[in-house]
Amino acid sequence: MGNDAAHDIKKPSQKSLQAALIIVEHLITTVYIIARESAGKLDAIIEDYSKFEDLLDEKLKEFAAGDEYPLPKFLGKDTRLISGSTKDIEKTLNARIPLGHNRCPLVYH
């Protein structure tokens, strides 16, 4: 199996084929089945700005109007759910606040 079989056109052994099938089954289970079964049951990484706004909107209910804190203070441990750096998401949020976007949680909090 593998590189030798591909380049030398060797017939793989039954044992090698079984090992390859086990690997493929594990990949399919890990990538597709577990992801599908866990959807909605585990905290998901936030990659979409609108999902970030949903989270922030929920978190702001715990604070009083006019409270001023850094974004991680508002998000608490859920800061870890933000994909990548929070700086990019903060830039977008800061740009939307002065414009008064209807969905910007800090505008109507």
Walk me through what this model shows.
With 109 residues, the protein is an all-alpha fold. It folds into two domains: 3-38; 49-108, no CATH class. 58% of the residues lie in helices and 0% in strands. It has six helices and no strands. The protein has helices at residues 3-8, 14-38, 49-60, 71-75, 86-96, 105-108. The protein starts with a helix and ends with a helix. The relative contact order is 0.09. The mean pLDDT is 80.
Please give the domain count: 2
State the order of secondary-structure elements, H for helix, E for strand: HHHHHH
Let me know the largest β-sheet.
Answer: none
Distinct helical segment count: 6
Tags for this entry?
0% strand, 2 domains, mainly alpha, 109 residues, single chain, 6 helices
Concise overview:
With 109 residues, the protein is mostly helical. The protein is built from six helices and no strands.
Tell me the layout of helices and strands:
Elements: H1 3-8, H2 14-38, H3 49-60, H4 71-75, H5 86-96, H6 105-108
